[in-house]
């Protein structure tokens, strides 16, 4: 049994793949998967499905959707919905929770590799950290819960996952620069600054990678592109740390060279 949320929702069993056909059923399944091991109240599920004005039948409708999910899981596992309600999709008062076995959810694996990467980096093991971050990133299959309509709760969960994904990339790139892998980081950084035009940390990494690759002029251009975008769109200058990096590049400051 495998569940995936780091991309379109995917549920697979030993002999079959299943997918809830109704979009509101997928919403509930997504919210339960993202809150695995925790119970989600029926009021939260209603708020996700109908954030403005829930119908009078909202409670009954949600209960019907839960029954549909249990039937779907039972079919995949070759067991009964009653057994699923005891072991996998449980009820506690007016709340529901998925009890997902270890290793069955891609989000579990992602968090495990992120934790291993952070531990390795904290111990100065940058090569091992880069490998762990790459393993974490490889689990993504596109935008998180991409095929599910997002109400307010899923919208917040998706935003959190996007930030986690970007932070992992930034942390890995920091480690790559410490390892002297500036040349191999250039193409990825070019794409990231294009996708995130106001992320100063990414631009600073791109400036440093360009400078260490022998492209001081390009490093300066990265700064000027950032400044132009920030002044025009946000009305602010780049941060003091980015401006300080600019001055160090202009001065060919020895502190920018890779420690040997």
UniProtKB/TrEMBL annotation:
Residues 1-100 form the OmpR/PhoB-type domain. It comes from the Bacteria. GO terms for biological process: phosphorelay signal transduction system; regulation of DNA-templated transcription. InterPro entries: AfsR-DnrI-RedD_regulator (IPR051677), BTAD (IPR005158), OmpR/PhoB-type_DNA-bd (IPR001867), Sig_transdc_resp-reg_C-effctor (IPR016032), TPR-like_helical_dom_sf (IPR011990), WH-like_DNA-bd_sf (IPR036388). SMART domains: BTAD. GO terms for molecular function: DNA binding. The keyword Transcription applies. Keywords: DNA-binding, Transcription, Transcription regulation, Two-component regulatory system. It holds the Pfam family BTAD. Residues 1-100 bind DNA. Belongs to the AfsR/DnrI/RedD regulatory family. This is Regulatory protein DnrI. It comes from Streptomyces himastatinicus ATCC 53653. The lineage of its organism: Bacteria, Bacillati, Actinomycetota, Actinomycetes, Kitasatosporales.
């Amino acid at each position: 049994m495998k569940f995936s949320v780091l991309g379109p929702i995917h549920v697979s069993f030993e002999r079959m793949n299943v997918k809830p056909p109704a979009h509101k059923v997928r919403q509930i399944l997504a919210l339960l998967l993202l809150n695995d091991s925790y119970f989600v109240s029926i009021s939260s599920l209603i708020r996700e499905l109908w954030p403005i004005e829930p119908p009078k039948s909202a409670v009954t409708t949600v209960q019907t959707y839960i029954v549909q999910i249990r039937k779907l899981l039972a079919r995949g596992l070759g067991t009964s919905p009653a057994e699923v309600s005891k072991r996998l999709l449980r009820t506690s008062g007016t709340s529901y929770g998925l009890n997902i076995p270890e290793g069955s959810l891609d989000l579990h694996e992602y968090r495990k590799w992120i934790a291993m990467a952070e531990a390795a980096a904290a111990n100065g093991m940058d090569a091992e950290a880069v490998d762990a971050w790459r393993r974490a990133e490889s689990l993504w299959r596109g935008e998180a819960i991409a095929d599910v309509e997002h109400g307010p709760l899923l919208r917040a969960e998706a935003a959190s996952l996007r930030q986690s994904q970007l932070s992992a990339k930034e942390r890995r790139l920091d480690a790559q620069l410490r390892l002297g892998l500036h040349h191999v980081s250039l193409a990825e950084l070019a794409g990231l600054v294009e996708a995130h035009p106001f992320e100063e940390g990414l631009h600073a990494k791109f400036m440093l990678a360009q400078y260490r690759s022998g492209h001081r002029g390009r490093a300066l251009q990265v700064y000027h592109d950032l400044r132009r975008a920030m002044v025009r769109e946000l009305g602010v200058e780049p941060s003091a740390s980015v401006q300080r990096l600019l001055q160090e590049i202009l001065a060919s400051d020895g502190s920018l060279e890779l420690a040997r």
